[in-house]
């Protein structure tokens, strides 16, 4: 019951984050095809961020089914995650505006890195306050994706100063890697329900 | 229980999409009647899109009562639908700004076409993962409206380059056709409840 | 169960409507007191509209406890109400920008008039589809406030062309009249719960 | 059941308030590091306000578990609180734009002061309408934080005209003081559940 409101609030913030990004797709003043060509990078960065927020929402959804007490620590860990995700529209907009430059590409990676760390902290909080600690830990296993992602983000941040396009390719790679939701958790949730 | 959060998130996104569009109705700097006359096409495109989002929300609502497991596939099919609907404010704003031109009229149709395809994909996902497959399939019947709409959108996209007003008339026609919610699903939902 | 999603969607739209209005309070570029003095009429129109949306949310809340089936007609009647309420930020912003002129004052009244009519239509739909028709009708009694408000709005629209301040005084009067929520419905809801 | 919708609406408004603030972080037109340096005060004021809204959401959440009837008075007390919180993005944006000046610093404190008073009023309403008056009153104890905060806000408003940075330090101090959620209420909620 308590987590319900945590979920509702998170859903609200994520829904707004995902929708606010589209405001960066400024309506062109011309009406020819050429008027929307410059919007293409903005559009592509929107697609990438849409997928990222979708992934977070999806995994968050699975994770919260384990956190049943909504303690103060869990709430703040969740707020911390929402904080970094709320910066995604800013990072996305900057990438859309100056995609060929180093700083926006690095900034995007930084926000994603911080969101990944915040998610990890939330995960640890929920595992430690959950009564089903061992089960959840086993379900997450070695959490390879959760460990590899920050490393890729760090690499992408560094490479942004060499060639921004490599960074974007890496961000897209991480997104692809995560687009399959956490099957481990999904399986446990499924078993829990079946039981 | 699981679909509840899917619905809540979708409702959030749709509520924001529908409300964000009104921001395109820029507050006039003058205070005479003539100051709001140029807003008329913006207003009309807002009305049309409001009705469209309303239709999607409505049918989505009926459709989701059948999808009870919120699998990864269903979630991503739903995200895909929300993605195209999130572009409705952009398409609407462009139409409002340059309604007499071909490209905005075609762009509006393209977004609507993609949303229709995304809805169809979601429908197929939910039918295939639902335990009540045959029943649902029977309820949807031949899904005439679902098959005709994309064809009309395609025609409207082509006709936009001949005469944009015909495209808008066609979009309005599809909206009228759908404004009556999917009675087939509604009937089945009703029977389900009665049982 | 069905109305739950209707309520959730309406809450989402109303929450966004009420919050989007604050965006009209443009952040001043100066930092002296004189920089925010011109914001006073914008602020006052925000307060008035905030109260209006609050009233609608409040009464909507009571009304929907009676509509338990969420038929297509109820859904569209509800959408129709949300449509007019979604125009409140526009009307409010215009009033804030040119409060001394006739048209914005009349426009505000027109939006309020249409919202009041839309609410009345929704009320009739819910009464007619509710199984507790007589009880609800009795509870609403002669609905004096619901009948007087449109008349005052009409008067205010007319008087806007004589002296806009009178219109604003009338809008404030209607708000005050409604700020006390529909005790009639509240009483019936209370009895229903007690039973 | 009744408070559920009050909570849902409040969550919606707070989620939008917290996310709308990020729109003040205008996307820089340059792509160098120097382009985002001027955004630092805007970012810091965003962090502070994010924490404040988080605190309110958190405490609101605990408080509402006690208010189970959603009377008209409670609803309006809640609306009143949301009104002042809806002004946080404005105050934050002004601080971000002119942080070295007295007026924005004082304005921020004023909005926080009014929100604190509104919260206190809501608390009193919920205590008085709750059937568990004595228990709740005992749980809140002397409410030292609730009494000290307005005093600090008042001091900060005054000191803004001497040295704005002191005001900001005081706002940060109050946030730190509250970041630990109301353990008193949390304890009682916990016991209530255990019982």
TrEMBL record, chains A, B, C, D:
One of its GO terms (cellular component) is membrane. It comes from the Bacteria. Keywords: Ion channel, Ion transport, Membrane, Potassium, Potassium channel, Potassium transport, Transmembrane, Transmembrane helix, Transport. GO terms for molecular function: potassium channel activity; proton channel activity. It is a multi-pass membrane protein. The chain crosses the membrane at residues 12-29, 35-55, 76-96, 102-122, 151-180. Its main location: membrane. It catalyses: K(+)(in) = K(+)(out). It is found in: Membrane. Pfam families: TMEM175 (PF06736). Belongs to the TMEM175 family. This is DUF1211 domain-containing protein. The lineage of its organism: Bacteria, Pseudomonadati, Pseudomonadota, Alphaproteobacteria, Hyphomicrobiales.
